[in-house]
Write a structure and sequence with these properties.
Layout: E1 2-7, E2 13-18, E3 28-32, E4 38-42, E5 52-56, E6 59-63, E7 73-77, E8 82-86, E9 120-125, E10 130-135, E11 138-144, E12 156-159, E13 163-168, E14 174-182, E15 185-189, H1 200-203, E16 215-217, H2 219-228, E17 234-237
């Protein structure tokens, strides 16, 4: 019962799921609570976990090629060589909506209280354009992000070491709620102009590489990190 890897033959090798109570093979969408929780899909006929780009009932979906997790919000799709927006709830690709909601938290669930997290650490995925707030190895919150253009965000492990309400660069572009992890590299809100107004054309790039190397976040996500991500917290970028 539960999730199980089965190696029948080349055609039928993969993950299956069996009802905990009845032992019946699952077909369709199933929520798995392991590793922080995820929605996955099992093929309607074979029962094998679906991975990668998938079309069903006239709609496109994307499932992580390793974990099988259903994509939501902005996600890079290798098959299409671009970032696409998938519905927050049912995971359908929304054609024409290729931008994230930069005015809202990345998740509908409430922000965790980071002062109560014992093994707090942060991981930034350049490939996924996401920031994972973790307690040890457990992801407790995931944020959509924009890292540097041309792969200019430095990879490695660093430590949070300072913060500020806002900054402004000589080129007239700045941001709010910055938290430093290396030199001039920061977590911060989507960009603002000299008047302190958010630059919509830049904010709409959230979810794909767009910065000069910093990690851009939604406005409320950046405020939460500014308020709660304590100095000394480990930040790994990969």
């Amino acid at each position: 019962h539960g999730e199980r890897y089965v190696d029948y033959d080349r055609e039928h090798t993969g993950w299956y799921h069996f009802d905990e109570a009845t032992g019946a093979m699952s077909h369709g969408d199933v929520y798995l609570r392991s590793n922080g929780g995820k929605w996955v899909r099992y093929d309607k006929i074979t029962g094998i976990m679906v991975k990668g780009l998938h079309k069903q009932d006239g709609a496109w979906y994307y499932f992580d090629p390793i974990t099988g997790a259903m994509a939501h919000k902005m996600t890079y799709v290798p098959d299409w060589k671009s970032y696409k927006y998938f519905d927050d709830i049912d995971g359908r690709w929304i054609k024409g909506k290729e931008t994230a909601d930069w005015n809202s938290p990345s998740q509908e669930s409430a922000y965790p209280n980071l002062s109560k997290v014992r093994n707090l650490n942060v991981r930034v995925s350049i490939a996924d354009q996401q920031v994972y707030i973790r307690d040890g190895s457990t992801v407790i919150y995931t944020m959509i992000a924009s890292t540097g253009l041309n792969d200019c965000t430095p990879r490695g492990t660093y430590r949070v070491n300072g913060r500020g309400r806002s900054f402004m660069n000589p080129d007239g572009m700045g941001a709010n709620n910055w938290v430093r992890f290396l030199g001039n590299y920061l977590f911060h809100s989507v960009p603002i102009n000299k008047s302190g107004n958010y630059i919509v054309s830049e904010a709409q790039k959230l979810g794909r590489p767009a910065s000069h190397g910093c990690v851009r976040l939604t406005i409320p996500d950046s405020k939460w990190l500014y308020d709660q991500l304590r100095d000394g917290t480990s930040v790994t970028i990969y």
